[in-house]
Automatic annotation (TrEMBL):
PANTHER family: GLYCYLPEPTIDE N-TETRADECANOYLTRANSFERASE (PTHR11377:SF5), N-MYRISTOYL TRANSFERASE (PTHR11377). This is Glycylpeptide N-tetradecanoyltransferase. GO terms for cellular component: cytoplasm. Residues 212-427 form the Glycylpeptide N-tetradecanoyltransferase C-terminal domain. It is found in: Cytoplasm. Pfam families: NMT (PF01233), NMT_C (PF02799). It comes from Lachnellula suecica. Residues 43-198 form the Glycylpeptide N-tetradecanoyltransferase N-terminal domain. Its EC number is 2.3.1.97. The keyword Transferase applies. Monomer. One of its GO terms (molecular function) is glycylpeptide N-tetradecanoyltransferase activity. Its main location: cytoplasm.
Length: 429
């Protein structure tokens, strides 16, 4: 599930990279140390096309999707619902809700032009889509004005016709036109060349349902009742002062998060508006997308900790009993314990385990079936203790037009959790 796995049907055959070898990205075999990290090529604006790339197929045209329109939002939703990322066995497919897409694609300073689609000219049917949102990304000591590219999809009937390279070139052009020359994107497929690779971990909440849909097999020598007991959780959270984040907490969360994210090699530089948008639950949306909690010290009233998770459901394809899995994904978190010079990594481990155990309890309360997390940030300190199991999926992080030395992804060369942790402080949706 999730990234999804890096082999199988969402994967290209490892070949010549006909398209990617023409792009400003490092080569897969490039192992040399980069002395000065920076852009791969300077973009000459005079050479950037002012009009869209011609489509290679007749009967189709480029469109800008207006995601403030409910009907166009629904078209993007429907395309992703039917055609977006599946696991290898085609048992599950991501089902990003309309509320989720509103949240993910209309973040502060979003650009309408960066929601690009392809329609069949006659039927007006939307058959492909790609998007970007602006982000200030810090890679080690440098801040990049970048685009986060996501939600690339091509209708199943139009696959393998080189539409993906066209979508990528078109979104690149549209970014260049706005003076944005770098991008970050993630995927389960291996492309030239990941700057980091994380692994997915899954923590069962409703084990029986996960077993029934084929997500969690019964381990050898175990019994269903044992599995259910293993994943049981208390009814109530345990951390003193834990409460849902409110509007009045924005500045405190911003300060905490900024200082915590500064400890990683690669992280977004959040503004106040971004913290409000990304982290504060918004009742304007039909469905809740994000759950955010703070810990307020009962005495000093200071916010000492923060954590959040978002909801991303997956459709279960062809199962008689269930058609949906409700998954919570670990989002941003931060804790003063990581920032107190005298506190050890052991202290951080204790604190994160307490917080994440509460996150699991809350996720259960809000009817999630599973809680997913990657090996990024300091997740390696809690994954095993909180009974997350390793998934098959890997998530590769890529930078477009930027040369950077590798960033630790929290897994070693055997794909096991690396206690050294990760340098990745970016959570992509
Ligand atoms: C990903 C998807 C858009 C690719 O389209 P396609 O019709 O399969 O592939 P095309 O023939 O058009 O293009 C192939 C090229 O795109 C590249 N490509 C494929 N998937 C890619 C990805 N996720 N990101 C970047 N490039 C990708 C291939 O490497 C290949 O380029 P190369 O010759 O340099 O190796 C399509 O398979 C799809 O919609 N899949 C489900 C959704 C999905 O996985 N989206 C990406 C989420 S990360």
């Amino acid at each position: 599930m999730t990234g999804l796995a890096s082999s199988g049907k969402n994967v290209k055959d490892m070949g010549a990279y006909k398209f990617w070898s023409t792009q400003p990205v490092p080569r897969l075999d490039d192992k040399s140390k980069i002395e000065v990290e920076g852009p791969i090529k300077e973009i000459n604006m005079d050479l950037v096309r002012k009009e869209a790339y011609p489509l290679s197929m007749d009967g189709f045209e480029w469109v800008t999707m207006d995601l403030t329109s409910e009907s166009e939002l629904k078209e993007v939703y429907d395309l992703l619902f039917g055609h977006y990322v599946e696991d290898d066995e085609a048992m599950f497919r991501f089902n990003y809700s309309k509320s989720f897409l509103k949240w993910a694609l209309r973040s502060p300073e979003w650009k309408p032009e960066w929601h690009r689609g392809i329609r069949a000219t006659e039927s007006r049917r939307l058959v492909a889509f790609i998007s970007a949102i602006p982000v200030t990304l810090r890679v080690r000591e440098k801040n990049l004005k970048a685009a986060e590219v996501n939600f690339m999809v091509v209708h199943k009937k139009l696959r393998a016709r080189r539409l993906a390279p066209l979508l990528i070139k078109e979104i690149t052009r549209l970014c260049y036109l706005q003076g944005v020359y770098q991008a970050i994107y993630t995927g389960g497929v291996v492309l030239p060349k990941p700057v980091s690779t994380c692994r997915y971990f899954h923590r069962a909440i409703e084990w029986t349902k996960l077993n029934e849909v084929g997500f969690s097999p019964l381990p050898k020598n175990s019994k269903p009742a044992y599995q259910v007991r293993k994943y049981q959780l208390p009814d109530h959270t345990a951390t003193k002062g834990l409460r849902p984040m409110e509007k009045k907490d924005i500045d405190a969360v911003l300060s905490l998060l900024k200082r915590y994210l500064a400890t990683f090699d690669m992280a977004p530089m959040f503004t106040r508006d971004e913290v409000e948008h990304w982290l504060l639950p918004n009742s304007d949306y039909d469905d809740q997308v994000i759950w955010s909690y703070v810990v307020e010290d009962p005495e000093t009233k200071k916010i000492t900790d923060y954590f959040s998770f978002y909801c991303l459901e997956s459709s279960v394809i062809n199962n008689e009993k269930h058609n949906n899995i409700r998954a919570a994904y670990m989002f941003y978190y931060a804790t003063e314990t990581a920032l107190t010079p005298s506190a050890s990594r052991d202290a951080l481990k204790v604190r994160l385990n307490a917080l994440v155990n509460d996150a699991l309890i809350l996720a259960k309360k809000f009817k999630f079936d599973v809680f997913n997390a990657l090996t990024l940030m300091d997740n390696s300190l809690f994954l095993l203790e909180q009974k997350f199991g390793a998934g098959d999926g890997q998530l590769h992080y890529y930078l477009f037009n930027y040369n950077a030395n590798p960033i630790a992804g929290g897994v070693d060369h055997k794909n096991s959790i690396d206690e050294e942790g990760s340098g990745v402080g970016v959570v992509m949706l």
